[in-house]
Amino acid sequence: MNGKANSARSTGTAEARETARLLLDIEAIHCRPDNPYIFTSGRASPVYIDCRKLISYPEARAKIMGYALKAIAKAIGWNKIDVVAGGETAGIPFAAFLAALAKKPMIYVRKQPKGFGRMAQIEGDLKPGKRVLLVEDLATDGGSKLVFIDALKKAEAKVTDCFVIFHYGIFPQSIETLAVAGVKLHALATWWDALEAAQKHKYFDEKGLAETRAFLEAPEQWSASHGGRPPTSRPSGLGR
Description:
Blueprint: H1 3-7, H2 14-25, E1 29-31, E2 37-38, E3 44-45, E4 47-49, H3 58-75, E5 83-87, H4 91-102, E6 106-109, E7 122-123, E8 131-139, H5 143-154, E9 158-167, H6 173-180, E10 184-190, H7 191-200, H8 206-217, H9 219-224
Parallel strand pairs: 5-6, 5-8, 8-9, 9-10
Antiparallel strand pairs: 1-4, 2-3, 6-7
């Protein structure tokens, strides 16, 4: 792999590379180029990540959440955050871990309203005007984040930032979608970081590295040539 070319698209930090390595180590990241994963959208992919697996590994979880705490302090500033919000369901545990570390109040946001009124989608105590950090496990095209952001704004919260453990980093609309809503996306690691870690620590074989790189360079083309169908709902076809 051309490390120089790919590092420009990774986050470029030691914490990002270590986050990716830890996710690979607990087998939250999988590579299967000969039998591609087919997402509900129809897109084919040689790789798959399940960040939720992290909650079952205390040591890896503690390290990654420590990195997250520091990354948020540097990128946003904890003094500018009043409440940590988790998106239903995968974002809830990570929001809880971060809220505990930062000693901040926590809430969670439902995908759909339950009841009526300003707080119909919010569980927990949220006062109007509070500055809320939305936390999720990962971001693909950023689509699902809009549901949570809209709910928080309807509850009169101020939402300018969203933090995820892992950002696909290959669909530009993930940044653009949130930017239109006035929200900046922050992440610990991307697929480029994962690819670098997979090569350095030999988690993927040569074919896995080559096919993953090809997918990251041109996901739509790779999908089309490996049995995938064009996504019909969201531009990226993953919706998270």
